[in-house]
Amino acid sequence: MLSFLIAEIPRLFTIYNVILLLKAALTTLSLSAVGCVVGLFCGFLLSLARLSQRPIFWPLKALALLYVEILRRVPFLITLMIFFFGAQVLGFNASALVIAFISTSVISTAFVAEIVRAGLRAVKPSQMEAAAVMNFSAWHTFWHVRLPQAWPLILPPVFSYFVLFIKDTALASQAGVLELTQAGKILNTKGFSASLVYATVLILYFIISYPLARFGSYLERRLGASRHSRPRRAV
Amino acid sequence: MAHLDIRGLVARYNNATVLDGIDLSIERGEIVSLIGPSGSGKSTLLRVISGLLPPRAGTVALAGETINYADRRSLRRSRDKLAIVFQQYNLFGNMNVLRNVMVAPVTIQKRDKKTVEAEACALLAKVGLADKLNAYPDELSGGQQQRVAIARALCLKPDILLLDEVTSALDPERVGEVLDTVKMLAADNMTLLIVSHEMGFVREVSHRVAFMADGKIQEMGPPAQIFGTPQQPRTQAFVSRILGH
Ligand SMILES: Nc1ncnc2c1ncn2[C@@H]1O[C@H](COP(=O)(O)OP(=O)(O)OP(=O)(O)O)[C@@H](O)[C@H]1O
Ligand SMILES: [Mg+2]
User: Fold this and answer.
1) Which residues cross the membrane (chain A) (predicted)?
2) Ligand sitting nearest the alpha carbon of B37
3) Which candidate, A14, A53, A110, B216, has a CA 20 to 30 Å from the CA of B49?
4) How many angstroms away from the CA of B73 is the closest CA of chain A?
């Protein structure tokens, strides 16, 4: 059996198939990268909306709550399908890939927002009070006091989420996007043995997510050691 | 005109009335100490004055201007003039000692960085922390943190300084040093409102002492009166218990 698989290797890795796999890997990588970057940025803004105290932000706050709570509870696949068919119904002429970019970003935003909010909330209110009495503006308080103390609490879970998120982009294959999982399916349909094809796909996923996981644990160690952003536990 | 004028101040946490009509008037350069049992609302009074807890009734006027706690600009102006040393110090955990002292004067008051740094170092040296400039709050003892908090408040150059339990974490030797610092500040015409359990300190440093209980100032007078011939039975009981041991 094994010798049979080995014999199949040269047949699988033709230029055409390799290009297909690399293209697919690139799509997975960019879906993940865009999802992470947009998620971090928008998730941050969303968590700020959720933590704001001023009455004028209350409608925004309610929307943010709704967004986070719904998207974190609905299966990724459903969200994707809603976006996909929703776009069709509304007459948007977007490609499956564009929809996949949008929906994955929308989802990671919801998850990151929740992590960021938890981190910001863990900073003791008395720290913000000390700043307020010294006439810090809301922005100065956030930038000089709250954020530096929240970072070490936020980054490790955000990175472990991103590592999970990379594998979730596979669901875009359900919408016909040519990413790694979809490429695996295509090659399998073409008659290559499933074990060989999916082993290749697995290795490619690993190559994409491993550096991110390493970077995450590096940050965790660094932040843990750095006195500048050492978290203070609430008493 | 009183420097700090408090009239009929009422404050609540949820539905518990913690301050129940406080009247207190402090002249410029005067040192007033607040004493009273734990939970009598001393810290709460300082929180209300500094705008961390909005009063439910009554007024606070600073240098003749009544503070409108609902108005950011008014609150901002009043906070420009006062500084507070919290009972729990509340040093910024993400900043070292020097930066804790410098951050507000430089970033908020927009004073010259070099000048502020020199002042901050001098203040920290005065409170005996010249060798701790780069330490972080969680590397300091309670007494050291308290002294950083004092330096941080003084570096703001306030007209009025609110000190909450400023001697609680200090050893007797340091209490003496803080006492000297406080007297010097008063000589500089700074107005001080001090909460303290250290009766020796209070007696020595204060022009007047206010005894607080049940959210009210029960009795107020010069230290000699409060500690020697208290008029109210509650003051008598409190003072004799405190001085008794
Ligand atoms: N954040 C809060 N929420 C609700 N109740 C509070 C809060 N802070 C204080 N209190 C209550 O208000 C009352 C007065 O508290 P405060 O801290 O002003 O007392 P204190 O005189 O400073 O006491 P101590 O000498 O122990 O510092 C207490 O009964 C306390 O339980
Ligand atoms: Mg107190």
Assistant:
1) 20-49, 70-90, 96-116, 192-213
2) 1
3) A53
4) 10
